[in-house]
TrEMBL record:
Ranges of residues in domain BRCT: 117-207
Lineage top rank: taxon: Bacteria
CDD domains per record: BRCT_DNA_ligase_like
Origin species: Pseudoxanthomonas wuyuanensis
PROSITE patterns found in the cross-reference section: BRCT
Name the record gives this protein: BRCT domain-containing protein
Length: 207
């Protein structure tokens, strides 16, 4: 019977990736808590990632690991490198990031949007939307796209042209429901698919 079948390898890997991503978020938040990433903390995080080597080539593990490896290459982390690593972790993790200058916590932007921002061509363009939009209900966002000749599909695919991410869904996207679509879009973009990931703000300016 179908319920007796073991889960497929891809499903198991996806579940492990989700669990390990959540653990990575927790670790990074801990490192960010005091506004400083020490050499010991950086080495601990790099060692943890190497112990989870099957995910090192996946986003966001790959980007963080690359920065860690470069910073630790000479065995010493100076103040500037520590600040760069702190900013990198804050961008990827999101949520509360400590601002050492202001001595306050601030929101960090974590979205892996295209830079530079692309020109959005609505007519005939294939769109995916995710997150919660400040512009209005999802239905209104869809209507605006369709009004201009755009086509909506439910999830990123090779035929997609744009993933538009609602600004109210950007915080902690990695562990949110929106994260699944964003991760898929990143994979497609990294594989060479001409899929642009754009923010709600850029989408709104393009209307």
């Amino acid at each position: 019977m179908s319920q007796d079948r073991a889960p497929s390898g891809s499903i198991t890997f996806d579940r492990r990736t989700e669990r390990t991503s959540s653990e990575l978020v927790g670790l990074c938040r801990g490192l960010l808590a005091d506004g400083h990433v020490s050499q010991m903390e950086a080495e601990f995080l790099k060692d943890w990632m190497e112990r989870n080597a099957s995910f090192v080539s996946e986003y966001p593990f790959s980007s963080i690991y690359r920065v860690l490896s470069e910073i630790l290459k000479d065995g010493v982390i100076d103040a500037e490198e520590s600040a760069d690593l702190h900013d990198t972790l804050a961008r990827f993790v999101g949520g509360e990031a400590f601002d050492a200058h202001a001595q306050t916590a601030s929101k960090s932007t974590t979205l892996p949007i295209d830079d530079p921002e692309p020109v959005i061509s609505f007519s005939g363009g294939i769109f995916v939307v995710t997150g919660t939009f400040g512009y209005g209900p999802r239905k209104k966002v869809v209507e605006e796209i369709e009004l201009r000749g755009g086509i909506l599909i439910s999830a990123p695919a090779k035929k997609s042209n744009y993933l538009v991410i609602g600004e109210l869904g950007s915080r902690d996207w990695l562990t949110s429901n929106a994260g699944t679509k964003i991760m898929k879009a990143i994979e497609l973009r990294d594989s060479g698919v001409p899929l642009a990931i754009v923010s709600e703000a850029h989408w709104t300016r393009s209307l």
